Amino acid sequence: MLFKNRSLFxxxxxxxxxxxxxxxxxxxxxxxxxxxxxxxxxxxxxxxxLLYAAGATLIxxxxxxxxxxxxRETKTASKQGAYIDTIIDRYVEGIIILGLFFVNIPQIIxxxxxxxxxxxxxxxxxxxxxxxxxxxxxxxxxxxxxxxxRAERLLLLVIGLAIGASIPIVFSAILVVLAxxxxxxxxxxxxxxxxxx
Length: 197
Fold this sequence. Notes:
The chain is mostly helical.
């Protein structure tokens, strides 16, 4: 959904690019740096420190904004850079979601482990539905959009972790929402790919 409103954040992206391009790091380096807070988030989740995990996840998400903004500001955007960014995004999200399996989260209807697994599956299938469509030449355009994309997934997860530190059942509900919406988004992208003539 944020994909449809990216113009609203264009000014913020330009500001981020101008500020962080002054630091002598390439856009690819900023992408790789996101692995660090993701590993910290995993560590915090393993030790049931949800509030700290929320902060680490937020930093990882912000680093993903920085890499693209720096690439545009320094005019170093490339296909290789975009590929590296995509791969790192999957690692970051995967590491953080795997950490959730070590957290004591109240069950809602089905075991929480199943909910987390569905969330992980949906998050990765949302991305794969897009890349598979291009690989199989079902479309020449990039498939984007859906009910929830990566930025929104991370934002919801951060909110859930922050609230879950004091109200665990709310975090359980947010995980259920993430599990449902990520898979619905994947199905939406599959439908878009198959409807292209």
